[in-house]
Amino acid sequence: MKRIHLISISLFLMSCAIFIPGYSDFSSGKKYFSYGNYDKATYHLYRSLTIKPNNDKALKLFELTYDLAVEKHVEKISELSLKDNKSKWPIMVEEYKSLIKLGSYVNKLEPILKKVVNYDLNLKVNNYSSELSNANERSADYHYQLGLKFQDEPEKESQKQAAINFRLSQNYIPKYMNSQELYDKARENAIFTLVIQEFGGNKKYASYIRDQVILNQSKISKEFLKVINRDQLKTILSELALVQSGITENDYLELRRLSGADHILSASIITSHSPIEKISDKNIAQKKKVVIRTETYVDSSGESKKRNIKGTVKATVDHYKKRSNATITLTYKIVNMSDSVVLFSGEVKGRKDYFHEWATFKGDKRALSSQYKYLVTRKEEFAPSKDDLLMIIAKNVTTKLGKKISKHYSD
Fold first, then answer.
1. What is the tally of structural domains in the chain?
2. What are 359-384's pLDDT values in tens digits?
């Protein structure tokens, strides 16, 4: 009993601590400090102190983590400064940004601590704006020069890297030199045209997934990818009167010549479905001692009192369960149409499980266990159909496949 009492007190104190102002961030700050992640520790301690400035422990730890975080970044910058490789500049930009962010925590906390607890926060904050400006300039030039280097190579992959670097240069200095003009030109040369073949397998779900993948290509993949959709294929065929000659959208060698497509994606799906299975466990005996009535009695002093009379109550339970599931497995490959080399391949899976349980009873409800008291409040429900389950999975598989394609063409 004593141990249970101590555990209860500990749980109570923990639950109370959660509601102490700033506690969550103070706890996170201590955790990140123990991991050696001084930037995140400083951030969470700063947040904690803005909520509860009179937390001495948080204040002392903030001063410690700030100094350690600054020291770490300054050492990294010193280390990078000794290197001749120009690739160091984007890294240095991030280091200076981190130092400036750390300094902002101190600058925001100083007036709060002074006003609320009359404490002078004696931490050194340097101005790194000129160093950051210089690092931004050099980073922009680094990516610009890389872009020029890749631009000299005619291959699409090189043009893609040129475009990426011209774009990155503008992250540091907007409209850096003529990087936007060069980006537009390199991107145009880098775009891959992808034909998505009709998927094999169950036609309903295969067609749905294919159409949605074409429709919902992400902005990231669209930077270097153009998907020829079904309507465009039909237009190519009809305009050239190829339907009458027996050529279909599955004649991809011919379509490559006509559409200028670079790659082709083919895929097939396998669906499975486990029919609804209903399991029942009947006549489950339940019994429990409960107060069934009270009686009045006269104690030895002649005073009338009441006492509870306990008895056993019984019930029987019928416990029901319904379950089913469905799966879709999609395998795909992307082939280079000029030499039939497989560029990317993979598999995407989806699964949906359905489970529902409920119960009925006869007898005294007080005899039921907590589990059955809950289950008897539930009713039987209609289980989703095979089509319902597979369509839910198809939507999920569509998203997964879209992300795979985006990754292939954006990396």
1. 2
2. 999 999 999 999 999 999 999 999 99
